[in-house]
Specification:
The chain is mainly β. Helices cover 2% and strands 51% of the residues. It has 4 helices and 59 strands. The chain has a 31-stranded mixed beta sheet that branches. The protein starts with 12 loop residues before the first strand and ends with a strand.
């Protein structure tokens, strides 16, 4: 028998089934004409793999040809009778086409949806909106946004376009993208990945783009979202009547439009095909507050192309290239709320993102039993910011002491509108993959290797001449930080600071895998795999920051699929696996970049008038006199060439274990249902941890090395010039006041879920899908970010800056206990069609973060909303000292839950009922009932012990309001 399994990370699919032994089966792609042939083995099973997704025709013996669809990452079952005809009693046929209602050849949990299906539904044009259709995927209520898959944080997911990893390598939050009309099919993986896949403990968005065929096609699409079609956000107020931190929101608006043109066809019939698209976008959001307004203009374009060269039926070469570069400019103005009048322009800033991306993929079918695949690609991202004033305007500020002596400024001092640094970051990933498939009897052996080299180059400098000038009052005879004495008669000085930070850092990640897909019987498939990862994070100096070998990151995977009836209609499946994530470039950059921080002191001889180089207005600039003493370089910190005290020698990597058991059944040719249960557990993390006590090494009196909290740790001890090993679950922290020695709790996060799903396939009249998910996410840390308090520096979120932060085990931020999702489409006639989506999920828990715990006078968290850390102990009285405090322990979720988040979308599609003219218009309304529900709250309970924060438990983020979108498409 020939085993069959869909490739977990691939951009292809397969067809498989049963026929009389020796039967020859030929399939032909209806678009390109490419054909492949396979032969049924002695047991009657056949399989043809590595097929690009699309429509095919199968021919065998004297039977009638049958049409079928190959889905992304799936295997379509087509069983044949002894005469070569299709066994209609054993497959699912929708309309005239065989489709894959139950895929008995895969053990993973995933949701597939095509561009054609999405065109019938009110789904916004983004990868995230598609992913939200899958059970267990929710929009995070965190201030930094993102998607949560199966209780994981937003920094644990990956995204692929045509097999190229396009995930942000810096923080692992977000991904590159292409226009929605450029995609062909999407697969959202929520668990159970095979051994070829790794570097994720959350979920996967896997997408493929459109390709050309033998027939020439072209078209255009216009998308419009006028500001007038968007409901106003509500102005929000605190309980005391003051406006929230975002200030006014009711006059914010945004108009968005885009238009694209595309073409596809054959350069050489049956051999060389192309698809190309150009898109122009125009976005104009406005943020209007009580006294200031920001008007943004983003006028960008996109280009993308796909070329497919069928060298012959056994060898294929694919090339993808696209650019998602985007720039925007924001102007700020004075604003009078009462008169709704925009005043004088105050400043302007700009930002940039995206980059150029490309990949080249070769697929070779060397025999009927051996297939090889190779890919090389480059993914670029950027994050830049600045202002027109950057080149000609330096930062000019004054201290409060200077104002006290000389009075307030009589005229604008300095011309830079924000007095902020210029920051930039450029990320580049070079990805290489080799994958092989080898069929041997009952076994399909799959093995391969991949490598990703991820470079990040960040920088921060002051604008103008690179120096920040600060006016300070001075006292003659006083001593400056550089040791110089202030001369007689000098009562004001300039502190000229030159500050440059950031440097290139790099991560090399490699993996090897092998798996055996073994058909133990014609109806029982076992997937037995193992994956090994390694990585090497390097500092700017080239020194190793952290590394792991293959033996450190072993991921066993086991799965099974039992075709209970032997006809592909009913299966029981399950899998168990371990999944690792490597460190991000953000963590390396934080520790590894060199810093120039120099102060030069001058006599200040008053101010002189200059002219603003941008708007021509006058401003004052310090008149710099004689230099006082040498340049103070004490703040300079070269890129380190040794991190033995900053990174544990025995650092181990984050992993998660996952177990899934499920059942699926096709009730008839259209209806199917399924149920599955999932359990995930994470028991290791990598974090910066406050270490202020190590027995045997007095050097550690207040440092934050990167270690595995709750485990044994080995660090370099400068005092003894030797390595010191200690159990940081028992040692590492010394309380202030009591002097108690203690350690840190081992991290733990669990996710338990049961999912029910019902599906009716499209039959040219209507389709429907419904799911319900019960889940529970618990632990003492969310993951590498902290959504409760809005802190998103991956692996640097202060979870372990104090033992009090991680002592609480309970419900976590991403615990949405109940989730309902429905979607459906209906075709009234050849002119009108309708679609709807409905989602409802229970709100997340409200957890209080205090600042102390019972036997310590040191802070476990501060009043800052957008930082990590915080204690579960809240002070009632005697709060000044640990010896007199009366405290109450507050579990996670002790202050209830946020409200249910509900969203209803509707769409109506009009099609011109004229043959050979493909003209459509779709009007979609999102969040139909304008439910602007609170999705996050102020979680800081205290500013200092016993002093309650005024806005604890009040909203910080809300659901986006109702908006409408019109999409008009024309194709020929």
């Amino acid at each position: 028998m020939v085993p069959s399994l869909a490739m977990a990370q691939s951009v292809t699919g397969a067809v498989a089934g049963r026929a009389e032994a020796g039967t020859q089966v030929t399939i032909t792609n209806t678009s390109t004409g490419a054909s492949r042939t396979g032969t049924a083995g002695r047991d009657g099973s056949y399989r043809i793999g590595q097929l690009p997704p699309g429509d095919y025709i199968l021919r065998s013996g004297s039977g009638e040809p049958v049409s079928f669809t190959v889905s992304l990452g799936g295997t379509t079952t087509v069983n044949l009778t002894n005469e070569g005809a299709v066994n209609l009693a054993a497959i699912q046929v929708v309309g005239s086409r065989v489709v894959n209602r139950v895929d008995v050849h895969t053990t993973e949990s995933s949701t597939n949806i095509t561009r054609t299906e999405l065109a019938k539904l009110p789904v916004d044009q983004s990868l995230a909106s598609v992913a939200l259709l899958a059970p267990g995927v929710v929009n995070s209520g965190a201030s930094f946004g993102g998607l949560s898959f199966g209780g994981s944080s937003v920094a644990e997911n990956v995204a692929y376009i045509n097999g190229l990893n396009v995930t942000d390598p810096y923080r692992r939050q977000g991904f590159s993208s292409v226009p929605f009309a450029f995609y062909e099919e999407f697969q959202v993986k929520t668990g159970g990945y095979s051994a070829e896949f790794g570097r994720s403990t959350g979920g996967v968005i896997n997408a493929v783009t459109r390709s050309g065929g033998n027939e020439f096609h072209a078209g255009a699409e216009v998308t419009m979202e006028p500001a007038a079609w968007t409901s106003s956000r509500k102005d929000r107020y605190h309980r005391d009547g003051t406006i929230v931190e975002q200030d006014r929101m009711s006059r914010d608006d945004s108009s968005f439009s885009k238009a694209n043109v595309w073409a596809s066809g054959a350069i050489v019939q049956d051999r060389l095909f192309f698809f190309g698209m150009y898109e122009k976008r125009d976005s104009n959001p406005r943020d209007i507050d009580t006294t200031e307004a920001w008007y943004t203009k983003s006028d960008n374009d996109f280009w993308g192309a796909k070329v497919d060269w069928h060298i012959n039926d056994n060898h294929l070469l694919e090339a993808l290239a696209f650019s998602d570069k985007a720039d925007s400019s924001t102007s700020s103005y004075d604003y009078d709320w009462d008169s709704a009048t925009r005043g004088e322009k105050l400043g302007e800033s700009y930002s940039g993102s995206g980059g150029d991306n490309w990949s080249l993929t070769y697929t070779g079918h060397f025999t009927d039993n051996f297939v090889a695949k190779a890919m090389y690609g480059v993914n670029e991202r950027s994050a830049t910011g600045g202002s027109p004033w950057d080149a000609g305007c330096s930062i000019v500020t004054r201290t409060g002491g200077y104002t006290e002596v000389f009075g307030p400024a009589t005229m604008r001092e300095g011309c830079h509108p924000s007095n902020s640094s210029i920051s930039s970051r450029f990320d580049k990933r070079e990805a290489t993959r080799l994958d092989f498939e080898w069929s041997i009897g009952d076994h399909l052996i799959r093995f391969g290797a991949d490598q990703e080299i991820m470079d990040s180059d960040s920088a921060r400098v002051y604008p103008g001449d690179g120096v920040s000038y600060q006016a300070q009052a001075a006292t003659p005879g006083g001593v400056l930080p550089n040791g110089a004495v202030i001369p007689n008669g000098v009562n004001s000085i300039i502190d000229a600071r030159r500050y440059i930070t950031g440097a290139p850092v790099s991560t090399e990640a490699q993996a090897i895998y092998i798996e055996d897909n073994w058909n133990v019987t014609p109806d029982l498939l076992l997937n037995l795999g193992i994956r090994a990862d390694k990585f090497h994070n390097k500092l700017a100096s080239g020194t190793s920051f952290a590394k792991a070998d293959f033996s450190d990151m072993i991921s066993p995977r086991f799965g099974f699929s039992w075709d209970m009836r032997g006809d592909g209609s009913t299966k029981v499946f399950g899998n168990a696996g371990r999944y690792y994530t490597p460190l991000t470039n953000k963590l390396t950059d934080y520790f590894g970049g060199g810093t120039t921080d120099e102060h030069t002191y001058y006599v200040l001889d008053g101010f002189v008038e200059r002219t603003d180089p941008v708007n021509g207005k006058p401003y004052l600039f310090p008149n710099i006199g004689a230099q006082l003493g040498p340049v103070n370089t004490e703040g300079n910190a070269p890129a380190p060439d040794n991190v033995d005290t900053a990174v544990a020698r025995d650092l181990k990597q984050v992993y998660q274990d996952e177990f899934i058991l499920g059942f699926q059944q096709a009730l008839n040719n259209a209806w199917s249902y399924g149920v599955n249960a999932t359990y995930r557990e994470m028991t290791r993390t990598v974090e910066d941890v406050r270490i202020n006590h190590v027995d045997g090494c007095p050097w550690y009196s207040g440092d934050w090395p990167i270690i595995n909290p709750g485990e044994s740790t080995t660090l370099w001890c400068p005092t003894t010039s030797d390595w010191v090993t200690f159990d940081n679950s028992k040692d590492g922290y010394k309380a202030l006041g009591s002097g108690a020695i203690m350690g840190y709790k081992k991290p733990k996060r669990t996710y338990k879920a049961v999912e029910f799903q019902l599906d009716r396939a499209w039959d040219d009249k209507w389709a429907f899908n419904a799911s319900y998910l019960w889940s529970k996410s618990e632990g003492n840390m969310e993951g590498p970010v902290n959504s409760d308090t809005g802190y998103n520096d991956t692996n640097l979120v202060q979870h372990y800056d104090h033992p009090a932060v991680n002592e609480r085990f309970g419900v976590l931020f991403n615990d949405s206990r109940h989730q309902f999702k429905l979607r459906g489409s209906y075709k009234l006639n050849e002119m009108w069609g309708f679609g709807a989506t409905v989602s409802a999920r229970s709100g997340g828990p409200i957890t209080a973060f205090g600042v102390r715990w019972p036997n310590d006078n040191r802070s476990a968290g501060g009043p800052g909303e957008y930082s990590g850390g915080g204690s579960g102990w809240l002070c009632n009285s005697g709060c000044g000292d640990y010896t007199t405090r009366d405290m109450t322990y507050s579990p996670r979720g002790a202050f209830g839950r946020m409200p249910w988040v509900k969203d209803v979308g509707l769409s109506v599609t009009w099609t011109l009922p004229v043959e050979h003219i493909d003209l459509k218009a779709r009007l979609s309304i999102y969040n139909l009932f304008n439910s602007q529900t609170m999705v996050n709250v102020h979680s800081r309970y205290e500013s200092t012990p016993g002093n309650k924060m005024p806005y604890f438990g009040e909203g910080t983020n809300w659901q986006s309001p109702r908006y409408a979108q019109l999409v008009v498409t024309y194709a020929f």
